[in-house]
Write a structure and sequence with these properties.
With about 375 residues, the protein is of the alpha/beta class. It has 13 helices and 18 strands.
């Protein structure tokens, strides 16, 4: 099978010239106990993939990248009895073990075992199974490695969906929708009539806008430096959209004394600090972006106890995939979650390095890849 493999992080731009991802022939793996083989139909490029390539998110290399995808189950390993070949699935990048402290607490997105194996490039039920044609180990990306024609994943990494959901839609539910929608509905628990400001109109920020906009009477302020992203945010349901320089004035105009929720989907410590200043008393900052590990925030400590402000981390939107993906697909069917607006285009996998530059430049929101191209 063909797969996009990263051998060295910290590549310099333009990526189209340095070509950090190499299309290589890997051996199609056979699923072991507790695993399934998925034929990848569509995979999409996410900033988290870019973070591995530029070194912001160190991972063991070589690694077959890609973590947001949809496909069809081709085979199942021993002990897998609740899914079958032919089932359409969305792949999920946190394969919760179901028994650790976080899973017992109903927070599978923070599964301890999943964090361990995702960090080591292994799978939930065993060591890395991907191999080059010469037998060399290739690490898995977040238990998925979706920029491949096939992926062996843990059974816990797939959610079965109805066959009528187009692959171009389903592909965005494994990361963007889970993270953005979940940050608003699960982490922040935004309520009808409240106000929210969202920084960063990538796919996660835009799905957060959609989630907030579908609640009755909410005020949704979208912030991004790029005009085309702000225009897209308005189409996704934002009440108003502006540049970072306009954020404070928009909050003052629309809320008077600050927003109930500020959502940071940029990956910037500086933006997190500015978000805290825009909160009303008792408001919550939800951190969704992935800043470089070297970044830190400095803020007045008194505003937490003195003004009741909260700083909430949100990984995968605090989602429970088996519950939330069907629920979000219902919102899509009702027209309340128009993720089609995020689909920039579909390209062959051979163009993936150029796509890295386009994503870094803000020219695309979600570029999908057809594994047969």
């Amino acid at each position: 099978m063909r797969s996009a493999v990263l051998h060295r992080s910290g590549s310099v731009r333009p990526y189209a010239a340095s070509a950090p991802l190499k299309l290589e022939e890997l051996t199609v793996p056979t699923p072991r106990a507790g695993e399934v083989l998925v034929r990848i139909e569509r995979a999409s490029l996410c900033h988290s993939d870019l973070s591995v390539i530029d070194g912001s998110r160190p991972r063991p290399l070589p690694m077959a990248l890609g973590h947001e995808a949809t496909g069809v189950i081709d085979d199942v390993g021993p002990g897998v009895i609740d899914v079958s070949p032919g089932d359409h699935v969305v792949l999920v990048f946190v394969p919760s073990c179901g028994t650790c402290r976080a899973c017992d607490a109903g927070r599978p997105s923070l599964c301890h075992r999943a964090a361990e194996v995702n960090g080591s490039g292994d799978l939930l039920h065993g060591p890395a199974i991907l191999r080059s044609c010469h037998g060399a180990r290739i690490n898995h990306h977040l238990g998925v490695s979706a920029f491949s024609e096939y992926a062996v994943v843990a059974r816990e990494s797939v959610v079965v969906i109805d066959d009528d959901v187009p692959f171009a839609v389903a592909a965005m539910f494994g990361c963007a929708a889970l993270t953005g929608m979940g940050a608003v509905l699960n982490t922040a628990q935004l309520m009808e009539g409240q106000s929210v400001i969202v920084f960063g109109m990538g796919a996660v920020g835009l799905t957060a806008v959609m989630a907030a906009a579908h609640l009755r009477g909410t005020t949704v302020i979208a912030i991004d430096p790029l005009e085309q992203k702000r225009e897209l945010a308005l189409r996704c349901g934002a009440s108003v959209a502006g540049s970072p320089e306009q954020a404070a004035a928009l909050v003052a105009e629309l809320t008077g004394d600050g927003v109930d929720v500020a959502l940071e989907a940029v990956g910037s410590a500086a933006v997190m600090e500015s978000c805290l200043a825009l909160l009303t008393r008792g408001g919550a900052l939800v951190s969704v972006g992935l800043p470089h590990p070297d970044q830190s925030i400095t803020t007045q400590a008194l505003q937490f106890a003195g003004a009741g402000k909260r700083l909430l981390g949100s990984y995968m939107g605090d989602s429970i995939p088996d519950r939330d993906i069907p629920r979000y697909l219902d919102l899509w069917r009702a027209g309340d979650l128009p993720v089609e607006l995020l689909h920039t285009d579909t390209r062959p996998l051979s163009e993936i390095n150029q796509a890295l530059d386009d994503l870094a430049d803000g020219l695309v929101v979600r570029r999908l890849f057809n594994m047969t191209g």
